[in-house]
Structures are given as C-alpha cells and as structure tokens.
Amino acid sequence: MASQEIEALSSTLARLPGLGPRSARRAVLWLVKNREQALPALLDALGAVSETLVECATCGNVDTSDPCGICADHRRDAKSLCVVEDVADVWALDRARLFSGRYHVLGGRLSALDGIGPEDLNITDLLTRVEGGEVDEVVLAMNATLEGQTTAHYIAERLEPFGLRITQLAHGLPVGGELDYLDEGTLAQALRARRPVD
Fold it and tell me: In the chain, where does DSSP find H-type helix?
C-alpha cells in the first residue's frame, strides 16, 4: 500500500481524460522513481500554466495571453472562421496545420438531455463577430454526434441572414467520433471535402 499522499496523487491523475486508475498508478510510480528530475519540472510547468492561463476574449481558446496566439497572428485569414465545440477541437485542427483561418469556441454543444440550450453556448459572440462584416466563410466543425450535428444546423440557421458561405466538415468522420482523437489524415480529408450546409 502506498501512502495517503501518493494514493491522492494517483486518484487525481486517474480523473484526467485518457488515464484510468492503472495508467495513473504507472505515471505516479514513474514520477516517484524519477522525482529528482521529473517532479520539479512538472511542478514548475503546472505553476507557470496555473498563473498565466486565460481564456481568449475573442475566440474562447485557452492560452497564456489574451488575445490568444491564434487570434493575434496577423498571417491568419480573418475572412475564414472555424466554429468548434471545445478548445480541444481547436488544438486538434491547429495541430494538423490545415486551416489558416481563425476559430470560435462554443464551449459545448446543444443537448436537450443535459439541459444545454443556445443561451448556454458562446453563440451570441459568434454572431457579433460575423456582424462585423470581416468574415466571408464559417466552417462548422462540430463533432459527428447527434448533438454536434444539431448544433451545426442551429448555428447555420442563425447565420443564414448574413449571406455567408457556410460549410461543414465532410461526413468521412467516424460517427460518434470526436475531433481530438482523429489522426491528421482524417482531419485533412474532412477539411478538404467540406461542403455547404443543407
């Protein structure tokens, strides 16, 4: 049996996405064995992020500056806006380096079962960004779930009066799949094959 402190660390790590109890115990064991080098570096990195982490007021991305690095990058195409459900989706798409525009994070998806309606998402800020007249195309990059597609159709209806080109990722994505777990080839194909929303 490990001490209470080590068990608490293991339990905390087990709550992270992708880590179960066994993986968390292995990570803790590795940290304990390599504590001279690994623990100070981990603590420094966590402290630095904790002190500087902010939500971008423009797009909703999480970064260490506001506006975030993506919004502040003047080389990006301001006329093309990719709408995603979550910050993880921004990171997945941007990691693939396939989209040169800017992003907008909704902060979730519509879900009647969970009681999440349009007022719970960052849709008002999206409409405000589009009203500015700088955006020509909105790419709806929702997850290929029922809730994701419902959200995409709702947003498409709200954007219709602006006369924009509204596209969505192609349906080559696996049903029930989430962007953060897809490989870059799948993401590339989905972005290249985007089409107008019906």
Answer: 4-14, 21-33, 38-52, 69-72, 87-95, 123-131, 146-159, 184-192
